[in-house]
Amino acid sequence: MSRLKKILVFIGNFGSGKTELALNFALRAAQSGKTELIDLDMVNTYFRLSERKRMISAAEIRLVSPNYVSSNVETLSLPAEVSSAFHMDWDTVVFDAGGDSVGATALGRFNEEFMRLNPGQLEVYNVVNIRRPMSGTADKTISLMNDLMRNSRLQVTGIINNTNLAKETSPDDLRDGYEILKEVSIRTGVPVSYTTGKKEMLDIFLSENHDPKYIGTPMEILTYMHRDWDTYVKEGL
Predict the structure, then answer these.
(1) What are phi and psi of 174, to 5 degrees?
(2) Nearest-CA neighbor of 109 among 69, 81, 67, 143?
(3) Helix or strand or coil: residue 176?
(4) What ranges do the domains of the chain cover?
(5) Half-sphere exposure of 135 (CA within 13 A, CB side)
(6) Closest to 22 measured CA to CA, from 224, 174, 158
(7) Are strands 192-197 and 122-128 parallel, antiparallel or unpaired?
(8) Sheet with 61-64: strands ordered across
(9) Does 6-232 carry CATH code 3.40.50.300?
(10) Which of 4, 3, 36, 10 lies closest to 154 in space, CA to CA?
(11) Distance between CA 195 and CA 83 in Å, rounded?
């Protein structure tokens, strides 16, 4: 094994914000080490990491991303480049994987490589935004997480509360996400690793003395993937 220190995999439902989080984590990692960012979200073409290629390159992050739109895993021409995550000398590798069966199955293709990693090298984060229909209850979140684990052949090691309503986000969103993900964590045994959001929302939420066990590490998120969600839904993109 090379000097690879950590592989971070972000999975989650469509609209959970996992691409934004993957980019935020990669940019932070690049401040202290050699970083690669791999885009395996082959279905969601709206929030595409390659749109921020110049910024990612300026941060000295290597981006591996499909250069076309495809919903068919069999036509993805990435295996050789994705294998660089395991065989090249990185400090951190961040995977942004699609939250449906296609994206999760793409991860499963590299199961043997993941299984060769040493204990503690791999973190698989389920990014949850309970304001999205498939994650609106504890039952729905658990069901989706089980589907993602089955298709990806990876075990989720941590949950991220990224509950938001884009520009309409309020502290209530983090509060509601906290309550549902607390139940999810208790029922599944999977810890809440992070609670993420804009600084002003986090500050209010964190002042309310919630149980830190179900908050994890608070993390301020900067918005790089600027999109108008309402326009996106209206146009059916």
Answers:
(1) -65, -40
(2) 81
(3) helix
(4) 6-232
(5) 33
(6) 224
(7) unpaired
(8) 61-64, 35-40, 92-97, 6-12, 122-128, 158-161, 192-197, 217-220
(9) yes
(10) 10
(11) 30
E strand map for 30-130: 35-40, 61-64, 92-97, 122-128
- Dist CA 106 CA 104 (whole Å): 5
3 state SS of 53? helix
Q: Please state the pTM of the whole predicted model.
A: 0.87
pLDDT tens figures, 71-125: 444 444 555 788 889 989 999 999 998 766 666 778 888 899 999 999 999 999 9
Tell me if 134 sits within 8 A of 124, measured CB to CB: no
Residue 70 is predicted with a pLDDT of 43
Block residue for tokens 């949950």: 159
E strands in the chain: 6-12, 35-40, 61-64, 92-97, 122-128, 158-161, 192-197, 217-220
Q: CA-to-CA distance for 43 and 104, rounded, in angstroms?
A: 11
Instruction: Quote the tokens at residue 162.
Output: 């990224």
CB 9 within 8 A of CB 214: no
> For residue 43, what pLDDT is reported?
55
Q: What is the DSSP letter of 124?
A: E
- CA proximity to 4, closest of 36, 48, 43, 41: 36
- Tens of pLDDT, residues 184-197: 999 999 999 999 99
Rounded CA separation 123/196 (Å): 17
Q: Quote the tokens at residue 103.
A: 């994206």
